[in-house]
Design a protein that fits this description.
- By secondary structure, the chain is of the alpha/beta class.
- It has 2 domains: about 210 residues, Rossmann fold (3-Layer(aba) Sandwich), CATH 3.40.50.2000; about 170 residues, Rossmann fold.
- Helix content is about 45%, strand content about 15%.
- It has 14 helices and 13 strands.
- It has a 7-stranded parallel beta sheet, with helices on both faces. A 6-stranded parallel beta sheet has the order 10-9-8-11-12-13, with helices on both faces.
- Helix 1 links the parallel strand 1 and strand 2.
- The longest helix is centred in the N-terminal third of the chain and has 28 residues.
- The chain is globular, with a radius of gyration of 22 Å.
- The two termini are about 15 Å apart.
């Protein structure tokens, strides 16, 4: 039996981490699977792994960005030197340990899930190992990423992108540079899709889930919902997640005097998030950049119509405008608010969109997506055995 190795930065909460765990569990039905995780984070793995999926951690130390930032803010030279030295040490060991792990794998299949790791996999992966790279976010025509795709993916056998748009763009970038790598589009999948919830029990709640990070644009969501609430005072917004923007967002909510109807709920586990989504009536997204967000699939599985800014990649691959949700031109807050007003005022419309959202998510059911993976894995095993 061929062995599949999946490279991960960590296995704490996050969309990429959930995708890794879902893949590992699915592949473990037919293959020996090992996750090679750089960091052993607290409370990891955050997502349930099958008993026959093994996990190997490469480093005991974890990133110290917060400690280093605090040292800088305190203007403490001793702590700055201490945390700075530790940060450099971690970065060195991170690359060294991963190179060593990749070199030690003599056959089977390695799947990398970050660009940085894919570059190392291409450079240090053995000839008899089949090498699959993944990109879980939008490349946004970043010059460094484009340079890597063209010059440092030469030994990657298959590059898995989340949607056809990204696949076609990367193929064009590689043209004339890399004739070896096959690009394919395979979306993330939901491990399990619950039965459709009772639409009559939905409450006047909008929900959003994600890291409290500037890229997620929760500040502009709060501003939009504040304006919307003036017309619909019986609705509230729940934001699930934690992160570096929490203090800023709480301050913004306080300045708008909106704490009675905009709630930061902190991090929740998958079961808790599903329960919250099944009670809610709308899912909101205001990210500045996305891939194919897991959270949109989870929202659709809970029959939630979605309202999202139509950023370059991501929401538009999942949302069918005016069918299972609305796509709003990026940063057009007045249009966003008006759309919320429209759908909040029409319960029949919400129910119709809820059913459509649930029907859409069936495209991302595990067996449907897994069939695409199985084709790739079978091809690679055949090629590997013939090499």
């Amino acid at each position: 039996m061929k062995k599949i190795y999946i490279l991960a930065l960590h296995l704490a909460y996050g969309g990429v981490e959930k995708a890794i765990c879902n893949m590992a569990n699915a592949f473990a039905q037919d293959y020996d699977v090992e996750i090679i995780s750089m960091y052993d984070m607290e409370n990891a793995p955050a997502y349930l792994l099958a008993k026959n999926v093994s996990v190997r951690y490469l480093l005991k130390d974890t990133p110290n960005r917060s400690a280093f930032r605090n040292a800088l803010q305190r203007h403490n030279p001793f702590l700055i030197c201490k945390e700075g030295f530790k940060a450099v040490k971690i970065l060195f060991l991170k690359k060294h340990c991963l190179k060593k792990a990749i070199r030690e794998i003599k056959d089977g299949i390695i799947i990398s899930t970050r660009n940085e790791d894919s570059v190392l996999l291409s450079k240090y992966g053995n000839d008899h190992v089949r090498k699959i790279a993944q990109l879980h976010h939008d490349h946004a025509f970043d010059k460094r990423l484009k340079d890597d795709f063209q010059k440092h993916y030469q030994n990657i056998d298959v590059f898995v992108l989340l949607c056809d748009q990204l696949k076609q763009e990367v193929q064009q970038m590689m043209e004339g540079w890399n004739t070896h790598t096959q690009c394919v589009a395979i979306p993330n999948f939901l491990d399990e899709i619950p039965p459709i919830c009772d639409l009559d029990k939905k409450e006047k709640i909008c929900i959003a889930v994600g890291r409290l990070h500037p890229i997620k644009g929760f500040d502009r969501m709060i501003q939009a919902f504040h304006q919307f609430h003036a017309h619909h005072p019986d609705w509230c917004l729940q934001i699930v997640g934690d992160g570096e923007e929490e203090t800023h967002l709480r301050s913004l909510i306080h300045s708008l005097d909106a704490s009675s109807y905009i709630h930061l709920l902190g991090a929740k586990n998958s079961e808790e998030i599903q329960q919250l989504m099944q009670k809610a009536s709308l899912y909101l997204m205001t990210s500045h950049s996305e891939g194919i967000p897991f959270v949109l699939l989870e929202a659709m599985s809970c029959a939630l119509p979605m309202v999202a800014y139509d950023v370059r990649v991501g929401p538009g691959a999942v949302i069918c405008d005016k069918e299972n949700g609305y796509l709003i031109r990026d940063n057009q807050i007045d249009a966003y608010v008006q759309t919320l007003n429209t759908i909040a005022s029409d319960e029949d419309l919400r129910k119709k969109m809820s059913v459509c959202a649930y029907e859409t998510v069936l495209i991302y059911e595990k067996q449907t997506v897994l069939a695409k993976w199985k084709d790739i894995l079978r091809e690679e095993c055949c090629e590997c055995s013939n090499s």
